TrEMBL record:
InterPro entries: Glyas_Bleomycin-R_OHBP_Dase, Glyas_Fos-R_dOase_dom, MMCE/EMCE_epimerase, VOC_core. This is Lactoylglutathione lyase or related enzyme. PROSITE patterns: VOC (PS51819). Transmembrane segments: none annotated. The keyword Calcium does not apply. The gene is gloA. GO terms for molecular function: lyase activity; metal ion binding; methylmalonyl-CoA epimerase activity. Keywords: Lyase, Metal-binding. Residues 4-138 form the VOC domain. SUPFAM superfamilies: Glyoxalase/Bleomycin resistance protein/Dihydroxybiphenyl dioxygenase. Gene3D superfamilies: 2,3-Dihydroxybiphenyl 1,2-Dioxygenase, domain 1. The lineage of its organism: Archaea, Methanobacteriati, Methanobacteriota, Stenosarchaea group, Halobacteria.
Amino acid sequence: MDPTAHHYGITVSDLEASVAFYRDVLDLEVLAEFAVGGEAFATGVDVPGASAEFVHLDAGDARIELVSYEPTGESQTNGSLNEPGATHLGLAVDDLNGVYEGLPDDVPTLSEPQTTESGTKILFVRDPDGNLVELLET
């Protein structure tokens, strides 16, 4: 087996708002939009009667997959990064300070950009559903 990254999936409550965030705030290009339903899909995701709308965005070597399900499940909003099971998406940028200065006022951040002991500059933001996105400059 020789697996390679294909996509990173994020379940969202409002597909339109999430696409706007990832496209307009993080400047990711929309590659595809599609819907999936039917018994095989519902069985495959283990959600009775499930259907979903998907948007794939270009993240370089992999895609970010935003997905909105019907029926919707209960929110599993991430808390702190040190909680077992916590997840985040990491995206490299060229000018982290410029990105930070250009963020809309309504985009929550955990802090201002910070330079870690390893020399990497990091900034964590939250998407419309509260998912953590790490923006980093190496």
